[in-house]
């Protein structure tokens, strides 16, 4: 997309722009000068929607474990999705555009604006002075950074162009890459959407099992430690601009075995999240409608959640906004419910007795995974940084994200234990739904919001698993829609198998939710078995390997201690999640 200024006067005062303004397209310049406030608002909403849609595409499972970079062919030819204009594991190569190459003399210290035309009439704007201002890259002390003019860069409504920048890899080679498009506020929102999920509904139970004296520090340590390791991922990416995904960092550290391990971990994480959503749906409806068994409600969930998996990403992204909106509203309505009810249980006016210490060691170990589960955003943090217009601001975005998320999780934990004490259920919402004394609208509102969360999130969680199944079964989309395919039976088979994969993944969620039905145990298992590994252990190993030439002795000791302690807690927490009643 063409790049313009949010503040026309600031950009017109820039000497580069002024001295070269004759090179600008006249129509574009008129748009810059006459943008109305309404057009700017519409454009801002459009850019926000585009950023959010791109963020939803970042959840994917790597199929080809031998590739060094997820979004590159031969390590130097980036691939992007023409629909989202974001880097992608499949799509169009940048080399398909005549003026984009990996030849150092051709692209070094230049920026190129490419326009993506649906009619395959692809154009470029090379040496555009505005794109030079906004796109040129510099390397300082072997760290990748982007040049920026603070508060002056923005995209306009044109969603068909993107900016290509030359960057130096850690080997010194110059490679063209797509510049990110998301602003800092957009990145903060996308990051919060990753972290604030159904895990917070079990936090009151986790705090009750751990006791206030131990539980609250554990929640803070979980947040602080994962925040620090998220910054380690960012530091690793700074060593080479072609490191764009978590799997890229795994390959850079362990080779193809690392990429394979991460694909397995991501698959287990997505399956666990899907199972937890099914369990949440059934538990919540069963609490208000006990005449329907949880088995019947899980079958109902399968029938409701399977059709949306056939929808395109652009539609699923819009639907998924209901997920974060519903979760935030749930927190608000739980607080309102506590203020409305004058008597315990379920009241913030007359609070319940609270455990200061854990009742037993097994309960504390179970709480460990529950308190860790909400912080599992590291799988997509590298993508979110790469999608930023100015990636150097990512650490500031992380700070804002973690402050907001911690305050939300802390509030939910405290409110839940104050309202229900030792009587709190595996989901705080279930405690409210089975407690009498609330106005009818509280029950109906919370139930409606809870029902929306699985509908909004499950299809997106299923999408990467479906994609990897399609990949291994060679169900190439282009082959399916090829009208000239002479082998009709082969094409029909692939269509049927793609449908089967979508149905099968949702069926898998339901079957596991029937076998392992307890919502809190699912989250405890996710927190102990997966979050410790993905969010603490692996980031430290990445940092020790990728940044070994710049790491300090103190950082090295802290990383090894984190790996050692996290490994022990992960093992005993996983055992507790599988065995403790």
UniProtKB/TrEMBL annotation:
GO molecular function, a single term: L-isoleucine transmembrane transporter activity
Annotated family: Belongs to the amino acid/polyamine transporter 2 family.
Taxonomic lineage of the native organism: Eukaryota, Fungi, Dikarya, Ascomycota, Saccharomycotina
Pfam families, A to Z: Aa_trans
InterPro entries referenced in this protein's UniProt entry, alphabetically: AA_transpt_TM
One GO BP annotation of this record: vacuolar transport
Subcellular localization: Vacuole membrane
Protein's name in the database: Amino acid transporter transmembrane domain-containing protein
Record key words, sorted: Amino-acid transport, Membrane, Transmembrane, Transmembrane helix, Transport
Keyword set includes Cell wall biogenesis/degradation: no
Top-rank lineage group of the source organism: Eukaryota
Transmembrane is among the record's keywords: yes
Membrane topology listed for this record: Multi-pass membrane protein
Spans through the membrane: 212-230, 260-289, 310-340, 360-381, 402-421, 499-516, 522-545, 557-580
Gene Ontology terms: cellular component: fungal-type vacuole membrane
Residues annotated as domain Amino acid transporter transmembrane: 181-577
Main subcellular location: membrane
């Amino acid at each position: 997309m063409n790049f313009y200024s949010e503040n026309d006067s600031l950009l017109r005062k820039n000497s580069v722009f002024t001295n070269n303004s004759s090179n600008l397209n006249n129509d574009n310049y008129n748009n810059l000068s006459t943008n109305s406030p309404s057009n700017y608002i519409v454009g801002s909403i459009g850019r926000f929607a585009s950023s959010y849609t791109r963020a939803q595409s970042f959840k994917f499972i790597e199929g080809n474990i031998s590739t060094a970079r997820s979004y590159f062919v031969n390590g130097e030819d980036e691939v992007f999705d023409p629909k989202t204009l974001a880097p992608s594991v499949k799509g169009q190569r940048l080399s398909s555009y005549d003026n984009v190459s990996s030849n150092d003399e051709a692209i070094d210290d230049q920026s190129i604006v490419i326009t993506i035309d649906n009619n395959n009439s692809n154009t470029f704007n090379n040496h555009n002075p505005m794109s030079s201002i906004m796109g040129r890259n510099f390397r300082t002390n072997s760290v990748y950074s982007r040049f920026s003019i603070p508060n002056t860069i923005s995209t306009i409504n044109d969603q068909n162009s993107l900016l290509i920048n030359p960057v130096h890899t850690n080997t010194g080679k110059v490679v063209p890459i797509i510049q990110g498009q998301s602003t800092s506020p957009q990145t903060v929102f996308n990051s919060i959407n990753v972290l604030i999920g159904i895990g917070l509904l079990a936090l009151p139970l986790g705090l009750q099992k751990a006791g206030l004296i131990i539980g609250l520090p554990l929640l803070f340590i979980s947040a602080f430690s994962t925040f620090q390791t998220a910054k380690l991922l960012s530091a690793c990416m700074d060593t080479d601009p072609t490191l764009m995904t978590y799997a890229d960092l795994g390959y850079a550290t362990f080779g193809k075995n690392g990429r394979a391990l991460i694909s397995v971990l991501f698959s287990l994480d997505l399956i666990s999240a899907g199972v937890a959503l099914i369990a949440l749906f059934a538990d919540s409806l069963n609490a208000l409608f006990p005449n329907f068994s949880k088995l019947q409600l899980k079958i109902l969930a399968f029938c409701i959640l399977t059709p949306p998996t056939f929808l395109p990403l652009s539609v699923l992204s819009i639907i998924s906004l209901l997920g974060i909106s519903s979760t935030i509203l749930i927190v608000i309505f739980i607080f309102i419910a506590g203020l409305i009810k004058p008597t315990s249980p379920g009241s913030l006016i007359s609070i319940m007795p609270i455990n200061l210490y854990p009742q037993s060691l097994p309960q504390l170990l179970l709480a460990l995974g529950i308190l860790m589960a909400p912080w599992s955003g590291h799988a997509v943090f590298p993508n979110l940084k790469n999608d930023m217009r100015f990636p150097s601001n990512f650490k500031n975005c992380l700070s804002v994200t973690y402050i907001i998320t911690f305050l939300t999780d802390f509030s939910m934990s405290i409110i839940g234990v104050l309202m229900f004490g030792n009587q709190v259920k595996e989901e705080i919402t279930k405690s409210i739904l089975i407690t009498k004394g609330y106005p009818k609208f509280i029950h109906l509102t919370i139930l409606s919001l809870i029902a929306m969360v699985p509908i909004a999130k499950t299809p997106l969680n299923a999408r990467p698993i479906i994609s990897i199944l399609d990949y291994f079964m060679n169900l190439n989309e282009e082959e399916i829609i090829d009208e000239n395919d002479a082998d009709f039976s082969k094409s029909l088979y692939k269509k049927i198998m793609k449908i089967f994969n979508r149905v099968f993944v949702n069926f898998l969620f339901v079957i596991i939710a029937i076998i392992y039905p307890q919502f809190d145990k699912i989250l405890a298992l996710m927190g102990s078995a997966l979050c410790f590994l993905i969010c603490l252990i692996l980031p430290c190993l990445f940092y020790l390997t990728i940044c070994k030439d710049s790491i300090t002795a103190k950082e090295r000791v802290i990383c090894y201690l984190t790996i050692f302690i996290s490994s022990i807690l992960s093992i005993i927490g996983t055992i507790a999640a599988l065995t403790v009643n």
